[in-house]
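Support case: user asked for a sample of complex input and structure output to validate their parser. Sending the pair below.
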Amino acid sequence: DVKVTQSSRYLVKRTGEKVFLECVQDMDHENMFWYRQDPGLGLRLIYFSYDVKMKEKGDIPEGYSVSREKKERFSLILESASTNQTSMYLCASSLPPDRGRLKAEQYFGPGTRLTVT
Amino acid sequence: QKEVEQNSGPLSVPEGAIASLNCTYSDRGSQSFFWYRQYSGKSPELIMFIYSNGDKEDGRFTAQLNKASQYVSLLIRDSQPSDSATYLCAVNTGNQFYFGTGTSLTVIP
C-alpha cells in the first residue's frame, strides 16, 4: 500500500516565521513534489525533485525553498512566512516515466493546511 | 493556454445515472493521463490512469483517451452519492504533472 506522510495536518504560524513542512514516502520513488492548492486556482507546483540533492523550480517558487538530503524525505521551507502563503500544501511522489513501463502514477500525502497570521 | 483544461461545473446527476467528465490537454508529447478524486478538505486520490488510446474500465469507472483530439474523459456508471467530489484531470509529460482545476460533481439521491 502506497504511503506518503506529511508532518502536520494543521499548522498556524505568525508572519515572518520560518516554517518547515516535511514529507516522507516509503515507496522508493525518485520524484517528489510540493504543491499548494487554493480555491479557484487548482494545484500549483512549487518545487519538485527527481533525485537526492536535486531540485527544480515549479510555477510558483518565490518565497519557498526545498531540501532533499535523503531519497524518502522532501522538505518545503518558507523562509519568512507571509499571509499570502496561507494555503493547503500537498506533497506527492512518483516513479519517473519509463518507456517500457509507462508507470508514472503520482500519489499524494494527506496535506498540511497552513495558516499564517 | 493552460496545459490542462476542465469544465469546472458544477455537474449534477441523479443517483444511478452516468456522470461524464471531460478534460483536454495542450502538449501532444504527454505520455500518461490520470483522474483523481478529491473530497472536500482531503488530498487527491488516484482512481484511474490510462496510457493508450481507447477505453480502460475499472469497476464503475471508465477512462477514455483520444490522443489525436487531445482529450481524456472519465465515465462513472451507476453514480452514487458517495461519488460527489471534485475530479481532477492530470497529464504527465517528462517528470512533470499538470493538473486541471477540477470538475465538481454532485450525485443527487
